[in-house]
Amino acid sequence: MTGRTRRVEGTMIVQRRAVSAVLATAALLLTAGCSSDDGEPSGADGSTPPGRTAAQSSPPGPAAEEAPPAKGSVEVVRTVTTGLRSPWGLAPLPGGDLLVSSRDEATVTRVDEKTGEKTELGEVPGVSPAGEGGLLGIALSPDYASDHMIYAYFTSASDNRVVRMLYDEKKSSGEQLGAPDTVLRGIPKGVVHNGGRIAFGPDKMLYAGTGESGDTGLSQDKESLGGKILRMTPDGDPAPGNPFPDSVVYSYGHRNVQGLAWDDKQRLFASEFGQKTWDELNAIKPGDNYGWPQAEGESGGSRFHDPLAQWSTDEASPSGIAHAVGSVWMAGLGGERLWRVPLEGTKTAADPQAFLEGEYGRLRTVVPAGGDKLWLMTSNTDGRGDAKEGDDRILELKVT
């Protein structure tokens, strides 16, 4: 078939850039319909195009010294814990234990990395769970060793916001979280597209991926915090060097960013939900426009920053991402699989590979566990998955 190759390792059909004219037209916004967090399209027949990668240059930077192998592997080392309810955010503590946020219960739980034992730290006040909103991403302060602060992104009755809370291990279980101190408020909220991923970058600045809350016009509005990647100081002020004066906006034209990760060259990547055609993995350049709602997936022009890789929505519906052993690893909700995207600089070094397809259901969050290890968390108890005995769970993976 002209311009196409079929991968043996996964289920994705990879279409090369040579067919750009027709696909660019198809990737433009279809105003009717919307893909929810589970990635199932709402078009008349439910059909979606096959996946695709776009190996194109993104932010300038030095190329990686050595490209990762074209074919990788994933080994499930063990199940760390089971019985989690609507888990969303995952943050490793110094020493190896894990913190988990529950979207619907608005709690933060500590998981003993060795035994899997769970201890509830407490419930976060002010969280208003509904639809795709609730207690979402969590992250540790870059000065956690001295300040013991946990940052969280959550949906309140009026907006999405970022807060920080003191974690006092000396207090009794259930009472270890201090009162939330609001760092940033005013991120648009909706039943859908609340974003929610937060992470501290190598620069010790706090990054947040937001959604446009179902109001597509917000993504192109630089005055709105919706449909953006935000960059701020730990106190919530615009970070030094941001592309727009006195603004926390770092990049715009996003639909619903749910994954943030940096490679070993400190380059930022982000995963993003498409509407009904293309989900995206983007290499982020400060100040760039990523196209939504004028473009979904690759546009082929110079106005918008094209994705590094893209997939049909039933193959991905991406949430968390992590960088390890030269690749970005992307958790898929609707796709129910873990994607490996080998990188060479800010280009794809080889076709993405799919792993664990259908084995553990919806995959929400993946974070580095050091070296060639990853933590992977499922999302089958959030009302959209097929929960099985033991769900939800955290897995330890070994990857190459």
TrEMBL record:
Checking InterPro entries in the record gives:
6-blade_b-propeller_TolB-like, Glc/Sorbosone_DH, Quinoprot_gluc/sorb_DH_b-prop
Read off the SUPFAM superfamilies from this record.
Answer: Soluble quinoprotein glucose dehydrogenase (SSF50952)
Give the Glucose/Sorbosone dehydrogenase domain ranges: 84-384
Q: Annotated region Disordered: where?
A: 33-73
Q: Signal sequence span per UniProt?
A: none
**Domain of life, per lineage:** Bacteria
Bias (Low complexity) occurs at 54-70
Record's protein name: Glucose sorbosone dehydrogenase
